[in-house]
Amino acid sequence: MKVKKEYWFLFFFLLCSFVSVQAQYVWKNPQEQDVPVIRGRAWQHDLQGSYGRLPSKAQEKVRKAVWDLSQQSAGLSVAFYSNSPEIKVKYVVKGNRGMVHMPVTGVSGVDLYATDKNGRSRWCAAKYVFGDTITYTYRGLTYEDSSNKGYEYELFLPLYNAVSFLEIGVREDAFFQFIPVSKEKPLVIYGTSIAQGACASRPGMAWGNIIHRELEHPVVNLGFSGNGKLEKEMFELLAEIDAQLYLIDCLPNMVGADTAVIADRVVEGVRILRARSNAPILLVEHSGYMNEYTSKSTEVSYRAANKQLHNAYDALIKDQIAGVYYLTKEDIGLSMDAMVEGVHPNDLGMQQYADSYIKKIKEVLKEKGGEIATTIPCKQQRDPYDWMARHEQVLALNSVSAPEIVMIGNSIIHYWAGEPFHSRQNGGKAWERLFKGKEVHNLGFGWDKTENVLWRIYHGELDGFRAKTVFLLIGTNNLPFNSDNEIIDGIVCVAKAIRERQPSAQLRILGILPRKEMEDRIRKINAALQNQLAEMSVTYIDLAPVLTKEKGRIDLSLFLDGLHPNEKGYERIADVLSAFL
Description:
Layout: H1 2-23, E1 25-28, E2 38-39, H2 64-70, E3 77-82, E4 87-93, H3 104-107, E5 111-115, E6 121-124, E7 127-130, E8 134-138, E9 151-156, E10 163-171, E11 176-178, E12 187-191, H4 193-196, H5 207-215, E13 219-223, H6 232-238, E14 245-249, H7 262-276, E15 281-284, H8 296-318, E16 324-327, H9 329-332, H10 347-364, H11 387-400, E17 405-409, H12 411-414, H13 428-435, E18 440-444, H14 450-458, E19 469-473, H15 484-501, E20 506-510, H16 519-533, E21 539-541, H17 544-547, H18 567-577
Parallel strand pairs: 12-13, 12-14, 14-15, 15-16, 17-18, 17-19, 19-20, 20-21
Antiparallel strand pairs: 1-10, 2-3, 3-9, 3-11, 4-8, 4-10, 5-6, 5-9, 7-8
């Protein structure tokens, strides 16, 4: 009897423990949100309730094989903020878990990445169980600061399976918030199984997802295994997407009998796109096979396809079709060990694919950047407000109201005044007096460095309008972290990026404002900056004379904290800038 009581006590204890552990998690479903949060889809509203990639009307338009493959979630992801020490993902897929040449973790797995407050990407390891319901558990997650929001996470979905249900769980005492889909125009991929993700070991290693992770542009993956056939119906669907760039990479599915139609289909497809869009189009050659040096017929097959693609490119250039670019097999440059079975890339091949694409995309989109931190575009989340949400506010504002004047910078611009509005405005009267009757957009972001401004410019904040005047004030937040030359290089890099996107605007570069106990260093940086800018078609404006006293010391009566101007300080700044409108 005693043993039986002890048995029931133990059973009751274990049951309570299990219930307690289960209760520690709060579960969130991406499909149940008020705004779209599933990234990588071009037809967001039509696809509500699904993890597919083509709109419902496409089912009657494309071949059944294409439609069926479009239900697989390649390239889709979900982003969120959380500070939870444990994150769980549970989901259900409809197809086979793995393939003979591609692991289960790539076919049916998920993949989680974190981005810290300074924009650095970090991969997360998980324990996973592949049952009827697949579960990924991320334990022991740590955070470098005490921010209530924690990190920005992005969960990449399976590459070769259809997801029917998915939830994300965090500790019940943790913060969690989905990040809405960006308004930025996407890079749109149309391709084959290689584009879809075969044979990456996990979703984050598909070359389209690598491009998305490294450039941080939205990416729409319309890769269809064995069925990227350059078909008119697909080009008509592509033309509906307001793309930033089209990437056409279908040749691995066009060898053999299909080679003869490559040129005609490419020319027709590009013309369909051009009838609806001015976005650049990148045509991509077959990357070759790893056994081409031991099989002449293999080499002949892909070279014939590439010749037809180049014929199409030549015809388009001859007909003066603008914005068409070309990526060769040699540009892609796959190494001997870059494929699983001589056809589909492994992770090494996927990285090499992505590297070649990224180099070309930066060239096409004029995202040159540099090699030092101040010239490498980067996000941040250092201030209490939501940095990415403000970026989306700017994109939304620009889409409905074209600014005549743009003010770009850090918190000194952000907290001055103007739209997008912020609750903190330190110089509203000066702003109103300076810009009265003019359409002005405030692109100041608290805690921004040069690399953060560069990221925002590369991600659409100066696109879609022609400004009369652009003012730039940046660099003070780089002072604690970078050398004088690095700061100057960063400011010049930002100025060049502005000039490329607003070539007709009058570009006014403001010297770094005087800062308590840093006056001498800032004066030296500004003098060198002015010399560097002399070779560019910009105007340098020195505000130090109206903000300092004897010996160049900061006039503290004009500042709130030795860094941010007060209303009187902004009045002085406005007096100077009024001559440059």
